Amino acid sequence: MENDELIESFFEDMRKADQNLDVPVFPETKNKKINWLIPVGLAASILLAGFLFFEKEPEVKAPAEVIIITLEQGPNHEQQFKIEESTYLETWESSTSSLLTEF
Amino acid sequence: MNRKSLEHLLHSHHREAFIWSRQCCGFDSDLAKDVLQLTYLKILEGKATLNEASKAKTWLFSIIRYTAIDELRKAGKIIALDENQELIDLPEEVDGTDYDAIIKLLPSMQQQVILMVFYHQMTIEQSAEVLQIQLGTARTHYARGKKKLKELILKSQTEANHGK
Fold first, then answer.
1. ipTM
2. Which domain holds residue A24?
């Protein structure tokens, strides 16, 4: 027992001496929290890029190049002009063609 | 055990862990800091897992010890020691106030068992777990280490008395 006391006293003194040891500061650990703004921002950018890439270009209407003026008979047998604008002419009938066929 | 609990555990044992790390590194404080850092990384990255919370100190000491062995080996400072290696001849002069130097005169395994039991207030069973040796072997190191340490202390005291 006396031996243990001798040794315990030795370690007691050793512990006191170790009080002067330069113990490093406990390292701050960084939490690996995901910054959600980064993935959300990336996803939004990809969606926007996809939307712009696949978006249909609006059809541009060609300016009217043909004006069709026809004389039509109304329900009360009055004559009236009908004016239409179009880029093309599907059929065209000469206003004097009737002279050829109905003569 | 989650990361927060682990951090709390490491924080609460930090000072003692550093001292043990230093003791495992041949009382080299700089190397001890590196070893402790590596130990914390191993634990927080989940490379070492604690199964029983009641054995936290034993577990931590064991990881520190093995990390220190690895680092000493890398630094080429480790000497292949026979576990039963006996004390080399007692030096002619022993400075009773140079505690580290006195401990270093003991064979490695005896140093560690004695330090764990007397300095860190652990049981011989716990020291056997840290060293991963049989309890009987740990008891042998304990008994031999204690005997030799006593011789060294007495020698230093005798020298101090003669010096007066």
1. 0.85
2. 2-54
